[in-house]
Design a protein that fits this description.
Blueprint lengths: L2 H4 L2 H12 L7 H13 L3 H14 L4 H13 L3 H12 L6 H13 L3 H13 L4 H14 L3 H14 L4 H13 L3 H14 L4 H13 L3 H14 L4 H13 L3 H11 L7 H13 L3 H14 L4 H13 L3 H14 L4 H13 L3 H14 L4 H13 L3 H12 L5 H13 L3 H14 L4 H7 L1 H4 L2 H8 L2
Helix pairs in contact: 3-4, 3-5, 4-5, 5-6, 5-7, 6-7, 7-8, 8-9, 9-10, 10-11, 12-13, 13-14, 13-15, 14-15, 15-16, 16-17, 17-18, 17-19, 18-19, 19-20, 20-21, 21-22, 22-23, 23-24, 23-25, 24-25, 25-26
Length: 458
């Protein structure tokens, strides 16, 4: 939404009047303009204030009565709105605004076909053709009739080539239809008519990227940047296209060029750092992540990326420090938690790893690998009693052979042989192929006479 749309001289005067608690005169056209403004920005409270004030100075004005319908719809008072429409229809039949209001009611109630009928009626008697065509297009989108919607948005754009809403709606329709080829054809035709449209060139680049036609995508992004040097998204998409074809040095140059136009550059610094990571230039990558952290200390991704670099450099202490900071900023991030568990185990901080396994299981209760991971770590610590408590609780709702094997082994290793043997037979019936994996890992268990006898019979 641009600043021109948000500025309205009549609204400025109205709000000044309210702030001074005074009473000023507005003609009907001015007050209708004020109500319309508030409805358009979905400010229902101020729309109601303006409506009440309008009736105080123009109590019989029909245009204000029509605006009351729109305010009632905005407040979702559909029955009152419909009653007022019926009353007004007898005084101003075939009024375009009333037809549009009825269309909106049906649309909100998800009767999209009926909404289309009223928009079509409005189209017969209105000079708001462009708006109505797009409104009909929206209703066809609601019906998942993308081809139909596309045709109406194209009609709207034909009336006004600078209608950005219709333009982007056409692209949306093509995306819904997964029709990149015709979308590109549409954009090329549009560019023939509007060669200096930066957003058309930009969207052409996006469509070429979908086709993995990176040379044409880069060309399109270059034109978008040439037309609008401050077009940040075009820089980012161009750099990303270069990354896709492993031209990381060039991608870095593009990202760095964009920084002069970027008021919040932390994201861009992270992208630069990731390019340096791909080039195995760890120190430069770290410098970029430091820049991101300096610009935005609350950006968890920058801390996490720095942690990854330190881990690759085998600087375990720094890796843990930076990842812990990322987790403080985003405590529910699954990848961070899993990485932190791995680093904690490498650092022999087993209790810390177990604590974060508990957090991970809380976030992903149905992920069997998390259960096995914690069980394996407990087995590594030889805390077999805790393994039993943990897996017995898990077994109440889940039956997984790996977990049953671990539970069985823990019973054997705490000299609860018969409990262990019963579970072993159960697990074996579910997954006999896993025996080969566990024989070397738990040799003491497989030396048990009950197990040896059981397996010899198989």
């Amino acid at each position: 939404m641009n600043d021109d749309f948000l500025y309205n001289e009549n609204v400025e005067r109205f709000e000044e009047m309210l702030s001074k608690n005074e009473t000023w005169y507005y003609d009907a056209e001015e007050i209708v303009d004020i109500i319309t403004f508030y409805i358009d920005i979905n400010d229902v409270n101020n729309a109601q204030k303006a409506l009440d004030y309008a009736f105080s100075i123009h109590p019989e004005n029909l245009d204000i009565q029509v605006k009351k319908v729109e305010v009632l719809i905005a407040k979702r008072k559909f029955t009152q709105a419909q009653d007022l429409i019926t009353k007004l229809n007898s005084m101003i039949p075939s009024n375009t605004d009333l037809l549009i209001a009825q269309a909106k009611i049906f649309s909100i109630k998800k009767n999209y076909q009926k909404a289309i009928e009223f928009y079509e009626l409005a189209l017969e008697n209105s000079d708001e053709t462009e708006f109505l065509l797009s409104s009909i297009g929206n209703e066809f989108l609601n019906l998942n009739a993308n081809e139909k919607a596309l045709s109406y948005f194209k009609k709207a754009l034909k009336i006004n080539l600078d209608d950005e809403y219709a333009f982007y709606s056409i692209i949306h329709c093509y995306n819904q239809l997964k029709d990149t080829v015709n979308c590109i054809e549409f954009l090329l035709d549009y560019i023939d008519q509007r060669p200096y449209s930066d957003y058309a060139w930009y969207n052409l680049g996006l469509e070429y990227k979908k086709q993995h036609n990176f040379s044409e995508a880069l060309r399109a992004f270059d034109y978008a940047i040439l037309i609008n040097q401050k077009f940040l998204s075009a820089y980012w998409q161009k750099a990303n296209a270069l990354e896709k074809i492993s031209r990381y040095e060039e991608a870095i140059e593009v990202y760095e060029e964009s920084l002069q136009y970027d008021d919040t550059p932390s994201f861009t610094h992270v992208k630069i750092g990731k390019c340096y990571k791909k080039l195995k230039l760890e120190l430069k990558a770290l410098a970029s992540f430091y820049n991101a952290i300096y610009d935005d200390p609350q950006m968890d991704k920058a801390w996490a990326e720095a942690a990854d670099v330190y881990a690759e450099m085998e600087n375990l202490g720094e890796a843990i420090y930076y990842l812990k900071r990322a987790l403080e900023l985003n405590p529910d991030h699954i990848r961070y938690i899993k990485k932190y568990i791995t680093l904690s185990i490498e650092n022999q901080s087993i209790d810390e790893a177990l604590n974060y396994y508990d957090r991970l299981i809380q976030l992903e209760p149905d992920n069997h690998n998390n259960i096995l991971g914690k069980a394996e770590l407990l087995l590594f610590t030889k805390d077999y009693t805790q393994v039993i408590d943990f897996l017995e609780d898990y077994r109440k709702e889940h039956t997984h052979p790996e977990a049953l094997y671990y539970l069985s082994f823990s019973y054997f290793l705490t000299h609860q042989t018969y409990l262990g043997f019963d579970l072993f037979k159960y697990a074996y019936a579910l997954a006999p192929e896993l025996i080969k994996v566990y024989t070397k890992r738990f040799p003491k268990v497989f030396q048990n006479p009950l197990i040896k006898s059981f397996l010899n019979e198989k």
